[in-house]
Amino acid sequence: MAYKIVASQCSVCGACEFECPNAAISLKREMYVIDASKCTECAGQFDKPQCAAVCPVEGTCVPA
Ligand code: SF4
Ligand code: SF4
């Protein structure tokens, strides 16, 4: 299980990048993307996915 970023909604603010405990979020071709192989949905680290928690755009960091 992993989260994804809905590219059409992302404002490329960068807030999520440094909140991810697994460094799963990076800027690729001027868009933020989540590496599904690194995303744990923050299980065991936080009580909710941190990217979704900090994202200012509702519904942009969502379960893949
Ligand atoms: S859900 Fe957690 S582990 Fe997955 S990308 Fe978001 S912050 Fe990183
Ligand atoms: S916090 Fe949300 S709007 Fe900002 S870069 Fe991440 S996904 Fe995009």
From TrEMBL:
<dbReference type="GO" id="GO:0051539">
    <property type="term" value="F:4 iron, 4 sulfur cluster binding"/>
</dbReference>
<keyword id="KW-0479">Metal-binding</keyword>
<keyword id="KW-0813">Transport</keyword>
<keyword id="KW-0408">Iron</keyword>
<feature type="domain" description="4Fe-4S ferredoxin-type">
    <location>
        <begin position="1"/>
        <end position="30"/>
    </location>
</feature>
<keyword id="KW-0004">4Fe-4S</keyword>
<keyword id="KW-0411">Iron-sulfur</keyword>
<dbReference type="GO" id="GO:0046872">
    <property type="term" value="F:metal ion binding"/>
</dbReference>
<protein>
    <submittedName>
        <fullName>4Fe-4S binding protein</fullName>
    </submittedName>
</protein>
<keyword id="KW-0249">Electron transport</keyword>
<dbReference type="InterPro" id="IPR017900">
    <property type="entry name" value="4Fe4S_Fe_S_CS"/>
</dbReference>
<dbReference type="Pfam" id="PF12838">
    <property type="entry name" value="Fer4_7"/>
</dbReference>
<dbReference type="InterPro" id="IPR017896">
    <property type="entry name" value="4Fe4S_Fe-S-bd"/>
</dbReference>
